[in-house]
Amino acid sequence: MSNKRIKEAPITMDTFLKGVWEENPVFVMLLGMCPVLAVTNSTINALAMGIATTFVLVGSGALISLLRHTIPRQVRIATYIIIIATFVTIVDYVIQAVSLELYNALGAFIQLIVVNCMILGRAESYASKNRITKSIVSALGMGTGFTVALLCLGTVREILGAGTLLGFPIFGADFEPWVIMILPPGGFFVLGSWLLIFALLKQRKTKMEGLARAR
Amino acid sequence: MPADSLTFIFLNALIINNFVLASFLGICPFLGVSGKLNTAFSMGLATTLVMLISSVCAYFINMLLVEFDIEFLRLIAYIAVIASAVQLVEMSMKKFSPALFRALGIFLPLITTNCAILGLALFQTYREYNFSQSLAYSLGAGGGFIIAIMLMAGLREKLELADVPGIAQGAAMTLMLGGILSLIFMGFSGMGGA
């Protein structure tokens, strides 16, 4: 199998940046929505969740990439899930040891990283086909893209819903917090608004390109 | 109603703390498979079936894990059990009821990575529900999932005839609808507390 393969493309900055912008897991591919909506009611939760998911992505990506010639094709999905679950268990115990407060705030969603379809999707479509360094770089990019997306939601929701940023108040004392933003409906509304903004930008870009071509 | 009665657990999972609209579990199928009413119903039914089976399995697996004092393996054990339960349901359905298999078949593999299933198994363990309470909880959660996904599918079918602006078509519109549905379900949260 390996001698038939054409020479692999080298690792470029693009391997990393693809996950951050072009193939952003949240805003473009709409994967792993549950934690995106559930834990982004404050910036710090969003950041912790992003880092935890990135760690699982990188760890499982590396291991799956190393074992890609050993895992039999028929049971590959089950094997991937077990590998991912192992890394999630590690993260679960680490967060519990580092900060119990954070652990309680994130609740079951740390353990639910296992069923984040983004991680399984990357394992199946990327890590099982590429060399280890390339898989790690790509996983880091995807993880960064996921973290950025979580932060986009987390900051907006915290500023509007609680009037604070990372716990520090940023408005005056007479600011009336828009509580609905940190409750479940706010998650849907903020993510929907971000998607609207990106759709608007994309529409503008295609229009500009069309104009440039007409000229 | 006492908080540990079967009716309360069922109603709590069904509407008060709806899995999709209040706890954000199972958002992927909620956004992805809610285009048509009848496929949404099939998806909901298949999910409920798997929820029921995996809830029973998780209950006994947890007894085993506690017995041997190896709770750190809980996550790995649960996900392995759910994946094999899905496989088992798929195989037996193919054998005994081909009609049902044709209706639900393509959704079954998707259900393995539905966080509502694993979430249900984990929550019932944390809340230390006994066997009948676990059953009531999983039935309520499955029913809640069906309600949410069918409401969304109904709305989206109606919206196909509406004049939606170009940039709002697709995911953005679905998320806004989800927000409004979630807002409506918040009205139930006064009933009986958490």
Topology overview:
The complex is a heterodimer of chains A (215) and B (194).
Chain A: H1 13-22, H2 33-38, H3 43-66, H4 76-98, H5 100-106, H6 117-127, H7 132-162, E1 164-165, E2 168-169, H8 184-214
Helix pairs in contact in A: 1-7, 3-4, 3-6, 3-7, 4-5, 4-6, 7-8
Chain B: H1 6-16, H2 27-32, H3 37-68, H4 74-96, H5 98-104, H6 108-111, H7 115-126, H8 131-159, H9 171-186
Helix pairs in contact in B: 1-8, 3-4, 3-7, 3-8, 4-5, 4-7, 8-9
Structural overview:
The complex is a heterodimer of chains A (215) and B (194). With 215 residues, chain A is mostly helical. Chain A has one domain (13-169, 177-214). Helix content of chain A is 67%, strand content 2%. Chain A is built from eight helices and two strands; from the N terminus they run αααααααββα. Chain A has a two-stranded antiparallel ribbon with strand order 1-2. The longest helix of chain B is centred in the first third of the chain and has 32 residues, at 37-68. Chain B has 194 residues and is mainly alpha-helical. The model of chain B has no long low-confidence stretch (mean pLDDT 84). In chain B, helix 4 (74-96) packs across helix 5. Chain B is globular and about 60 Å long. Chain B has one domain. Classes of the chains: A mainly alpha (215), B mainly alpha (194). The interface between A and B is large, with 42 and 40 residues.
